[in-house]
Amino acid sequence: MYYVAEVRDTIRVEPNRFGENLEEVVLEICRETFEGTINKDLGFTVVVIDIQDIGPGRLIPGDGAAFYDVIFTTLSYLPEDREFVIGDVVEVTDFGVFLRLGCVDALCHVSQVSDDFFSYNSKQGALIGRDSQRRISVGDRVRARIILVTIGKSQIRVGVTMRQAGLGVESWIEEWKKQSKKGATATTTEKKKTATKKATTKKTTTEKKDTAKKSTEKKKSK
Questions:
Q1: N or C, which end of the chain has less CB nearby within 10 Å?
Q2: Model-wide pTM > 0.85
Q3: How far is CA 60 from CA 27, 71, 77, 152, 164, in A?
Q4: pLDDT tens digit sequence for 71-105
């Protein structure tokens, strides 16, 4: 997910920039240093938004630069396990498909595409289901769920699944919604029939009891 984080760090400002606006210089350095980097806690830093605070500058013997303790905010992306995501298919291979999730790519292994058996068709550049004949190719927009996140020094690896109901290519999801709606309608109709049948049975039983009661009363009166 994307989120705004507050970061604290020490920024080194070269002597040749001492005459410039300090906040602008620090913001520029922060952006050059942190944007596009990966951190285990922060994830992928998309952009440094602004500077919140700049502490007093200090000098270190033997270094002509000034060092400032800085607080700044960033927009970062950190994928989370079990998170639902929407992405576009950017590559299809014989072992699965790669999805573009904003600033990172995720792999959906061929075994996680669907309950159906999918195989790669090189001529069509697509994975095709053996029984359903469903296909997934570059450009398809899909909905998936994250099942694996590995954050390294220079890369974030994400694994996703589309086997759960309500996931997959947009057209598959629409089919699933229609089937679910039909199923819900059928269930409601069946419940109404059952309720009507019970009411009818109850009415018949009551009528039989009333008839038996009247018959008994007639015998007694004779």
A1: C
A2: no
A3: 22, 21, 35, 32, 58
A4: 999 999 999 999 999 999 999 999 999 999 988 99
